[in-house]
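Hi support team,

I submitted a single chain yesterday and got back a structure, but I'm not sure I'm reading the token output correctly. Could someone confirm the output below corresponds to the sequence I sent? I've pasted both exactly as they appear in my results page.

Thanks,
R.
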Amino acid sequence: MTCFQSGRRARGFTLIELLVVIAIIAVLIALLLPAVQQAREAARRTQCKNNLKQFGLAMHNYESSFRMFPMASAQLSSSQGFSPQARLLPYFDQANLQSLLDFSQPAFTGPFNALVPNPAFVTAFATPLTLMLCPSDPVPSQTHGNGGFVYGGTNYMVSYGSSTRTNYDLRWPTDGVVYENSSVGFQSITDGVSNTVMMSEAIRSVGATVTLPPGTLPPFNYRLTLNGSSGVSSALQPVPGLAASGSWSVFTNSAGMIFNPDLDDIWPSMTTWRGPADGTMRGRGVSWAHSGALSTLTNGYNTPNSRIPDVVTHFTGFFGPRSMHTGGAHLLMGDGGVRFVSDNIDEALHRGLHSRNGGEVTGEF
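Hi R., thanks for writing in. Yes, this is the structure output for that exact sequence:
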């Protein structure tokens, strides 16, 4: 039998051609991946902005109903109350959740380093709410506290002012839209609603309390907060402010109260960085229900994403907006608008925006 060999060559890729194709695909992926990530972040940033807009509508509707913005409950030695965010629940379609709460009862009991929720509210407090969470912040939506209790977190903080002078002492009237047992309404915003911050975003704390050498910073953007309570008295004074000694005493007024401290001079001497993983409420945004400054309140002493860490002094502190968005953070203004404010905003301007009645000339920002 005669065999005839076909004159056609078998088609296929050579090794070199295959490697070239793979290299081209790799280059395309390298070019497209950042674009996809940027598109996703743009969508997350838009969602974050919309969340704050919903808070703005809720704040306006609450004020329309009660002629005041939701207050921060007073912090007592044996019990603590509800946050402004908890009081806003019916105004963003969470009336069923708020029906599980009773504002005539304490929200939490025990000392601040060992708080536990009122047993009647355990289930409600554990509920994570999408509106409370910035989608760019990847930490878990729930935090485990003392005794194994679980809390739904929040990225959105209500402003208690600039913290300039002695306005950080929220047991007294501050220049913010809330303070303890406040009754601030639109009539009290004399600087103009478009020039006054009502809320801003923060990143939620995660991790355990750690001790670092003086002057050492944890990874930026500082999910842990710096304990600055050493040398600071938590006692209620006859005038607003916290009495201080040690490194704080350099920045006190004639009454001995902390007054416009230069945090850059103070923080390097502090060594304890607090996080919620040790079972306490010592973390930013740990619980949307807790009325502590660390959990649900903020001020404008630091500019957005400042390299100066948030410094906590007992029940209050010196904070600033923080976000996972590049270049700035979202601020909710009194007129309901949301502004993305640059990390590079002037410090005095930023503090003035957090004041509702300081008479500052803000200009463009």
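A quick pointer for reading it: The first helix runs from residue 15 to 66. Let us know if anything else looks off.

Best,
Support desk
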